[in-house]
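Researcher: Please generate the 3D structure of the following complex. Treat every line as part of one assembly.
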Amino acid sequence: MSNRKSKSIGKTSPPDAVIRTEGLTKRYPNGTVAVDHLDLTIHPGEVYGMLGPNGSGKTTTILMLIGLAEATQGTVRVAGYDPLRRPLAVKRQVAYMPDSVGFYNDMSAFDNLDYTGQLAQIPGAERRRLIDAALQRMGLSEVKHSRVGTFSRGMRQRLALAEVLAKQPRIAILDEPTQGLDPESAHEFLQLIRSLKEDGITILLSSHLLDQVQQICDRVGLFYKGRLILEGTVEELSKQVLGGHIRIQLSAVTDDRKGFQKTLAGIAGVQEVQIESHRLDEVYRTHLAKERQNAEA
Amino acid sequence: MQKREESALTGVGVVILKELRDYLGSIRMKLLIGLILITAIASTYGAASRIRSLVGEDQFLLLGLFTVSKDPVPSFVAFLGFLIPLAAIALGFDAINSEYSRRTLSRVLSQPIHRDALIIGKAVAAVVAIAIALLALWLLILGGGMLFFGIPPTGEQVARALAFYSMTVLYAAIWVVLAMLFSVLFKQPATSALASLGVWLLITVFWPIIASVIANAVTDPNTLMYAKTQQAISRISPNTIFGEVTLALLNPTTRTLGPVVFSQLEGAILGTPLPLGVSLLLIWPHVSGLAAATLVLFAGTYVLFQRQEVRA
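Model: Done. Output below.
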């Protein structure tokens, strides 16, 4: 890729944390505490998921990380800088995708990205090349001169990710990236996000859809009421909370449900056998896959 | 507090160009220019025909195009005093809150710029957009006047017309900044439009009435004090200031903008024009007052915007 990025990554003695907060607290004048003594460490190159219900302080934390909100207490270091003292140094290395992202509807996809690219001071020819490449990668090349007003929700999300990509950041912070997407598009979108990791970008994403995001996160932090209550890899956490317990999903064709259940329950170590009705999204996805196969044949 | 290390104006040029492009291409701008153009044609046509009928050796013939009115159409200056605030409000009332409602603000502010660049860029772009439109209008009127009367303007006339143009732009600036203040204050563009228009109506239509009512209440009519009080109150309105400034600039025989007593006129040769320098001296307090008010309003807007939480 370009030398811009390799310069920022190939720094001598990279710090062991690209984002570090200590005792980070945000208290609003009305007394509510949005973020409560948060200690967060994010290592270079990892995909970190901040997970938790709405209102657990994820967005507020993100805003403090990029210097758009002021912390009441505690310290923040992003890429080694304090976002409040050196906002431009931080914002130059961080790309941010807000939740329910918006664009200038009267401008084309390309022009929207060109505007923010100019603000990011990427020089002319390189900027156009980066934007074109990013749009291509997000599958938006064909609509790059269409007005964003005509775009669907999913296209807007992909456009936002293209913007992140075109900036060639060291850190990408994505707030609720799959919000408003159907399960299938969300899945595809998450794969696109995951592909940023191959470019050496550290990714911090937030979501309230725990099961959706777990597929792409190296490490997750579970948030509750502004506090980080659990942190680790998904495997570690399951082990810690659920014990040695594993869960198997089995699909079988049988007429004798009861008998089959009994047989399984008889196997040593099995604690519980449950027959679940099929999920509709599974039906939908399987049907689509079959149709696609038929179409190819 | 540690001083910030990078210029507050990083990226301001990009913002200005983008906003300018938006403003100049916007439908509301076209509508307003159309409106101003129609009134300009009507009022200057009336002025021209009246000036022609008053045969005389007026050396400031062309300037009359701006100020002379022929019933029932008001003069061009009077129209401008009324319409420029409207144009400025139309450009400024949703400057900031529309970024919130489109949810583009955090995308823009997460780029390596300070908030200063956005708000300064937007204000400058709106003023420049109006300035461009007014310049075209100004040239059109002067050029049309030259063709119509068949005489070229003198250097002094051009200088006075230019000073008038700059004052018009300054007058537009204060309204742009006021509308932007409301666009920071109110999250709904409709609310901020309504608030701006309310102030506009208050200032341009009701303020003279209010001024005389207050003056009546606190002083005895028929006294000099009354006239002075009334003028002092009415000068709070930028519309009054603009009116007085244009009067002094475009009507060189204007010697004073306030009430005078006879003793002060001793030795004055009434009806002789003042040189430009003296006219400028006459309006200097107005100019600095208008500029200061604009800056104060902008500072307020700026502080409010800096303190706002960006959650959009």
